[in-house]
Write a structure and sequence with these properties.
- The chain contains 1 helix and 3 strands.
- By secondary structure, it is of the alpha+beta class.
- It has a 3-stranded antiparallel beta sheet with strand order 2-1-3, covered by helices on one side.
- The radius of gyration is 14 Å and the shape is elongated.
- The two termini are 27 Å apart.
Length: 48
């Protein structure tokens, strides 16, 4: 993921926010326990 983020940065994109969108615990999805298995990354770029 960091490789892709760095490539986007080299093209002028700025990372604004990273948000977890799903977590799993032993195959179940739970908002309290477990790790993130998907994220949403938001970027912005100045239009010239």
């Amino acid at each position: 993921m960091s490789k892709i983020f760095n490539e986007l940065g080299a093209e002028g994109w700025e990372l604004v926010s990273v948000t977890p969108i799903r977590m799993s615990v032993n195959g179940r999805y739970d908002a309290i326990n477990g790790g993130f298995d998907k994220i949403a990354a938001y970027f912005k770029k100045e239009i010239q």
